[in-house]
Structure formats: structure tokens, C-alpha cells
Design brief:
This protein is an alpha+beta fold. It has a domain of 109 residues: Orthogonal Bundle (Arc Repressor Mutant, subunit A). The protein contains eight helices and four strands. Strands 1-2 form a two-stranded antiparallel sheet. Strands 3-4 form a two-stranded antiparallel sheet. Helix 5 packs across helix 7. The longest helix has 21 residues. The chain starts with a helix and ends with a helix. The mean pLDDT is 88. InterPro entries: ArsR-like_HTH, WH-like_DNA-bd_sf, WH_DNA-bd_sf.
Length: 167
Amino acid sequence: MSTMEERLAALEAQVATLTERMTVAPPTPPAPEGAFWALDGLKQRLPADGTGAVLYTGTVRVADQHYDWQYGRTVDDLLAADWTELAGTLSALAHPVRLRLLREVLGGRQSTSELAEIEELGTTGQLHHHLRQITAAGWLRSAGRGRYAVPAERVVPLLAILTAAGR
């Protein structure tokens, strides 16, 4: 066999190996021990005769910032609360531009000038309108001199809402 034929055979063998690797699904990792560790911990803290509780927790690193957060409420407290008071906070998220603004700010674009460079966000007037709306609802805060930040206590709740909305 000539050198060219040997090289061609070696390349064909490599392509066959790579093709096989691409068509075989990676093995599913086994479920870790205590896969519901947060749920198990919550259940241990609840009275046996209670109606339950909701807990959300997260550890997040975005744009060189780290956030750890957990929050829980009993079902009784949640059902007894006036949900209508939450309409303003939730409706502030119900606009594609506002969601994009939150994603951009969380991702590190925090100045009005950086945000104004994104064409899809509209005119400067529209941009300021949306910034006012999500700031008034508490999803953003002014960080001074035309800069904005998602408050630390809102990062994990925001991501939890987005997770729930995605089903």
C-alpha cells in the first residue's frame, strides 16, 4: 500500500469513528442521590397537618456577579394573600422589550447608552418608558448616572418566573 493509500485509509477510519460518535447519544447520567434534596428539606420543616409550602432557591453567576437566594411561603399564606396587588409587578414583565432589557442588564449592559445601541429596543423615548416601568415595579434599580442593575434580591425570583413561564 502506498503512503497516499495508507493516509486515505487512516482518514476514512477517523471519519467513521467520528460519525459513529455523533450518532450515538451520550449516556444519561444516573440521578444523584437525594435528587429532591430541596423538596425533602422543605418537607422536613413543615408540620404534618399543614397544606404545604412553595420554595424557590438558586445560585446564579452572571456578568461576574454571584447571587444566592432562597425564599419560601406556606400555601396558606399564599392563598390568603391579595393576588391583585401583584398585577403591577407581573405586568411589568409582560412586554418583550422589557424582558429583553432585563436580560441585557443582567448580562452586563447596564448603561442607557449601551441599551440604546440595541435597535430592537426602540427609540430613546421608548427605551426610557420601558426602563421606568420595570424600575417602578422593582425589577430594576438605578445604579446612578444612567446605569441600571437588577436588584440582587430579584435575580433568582426573575429567573424562577421565567422558568415557570417556559413550562
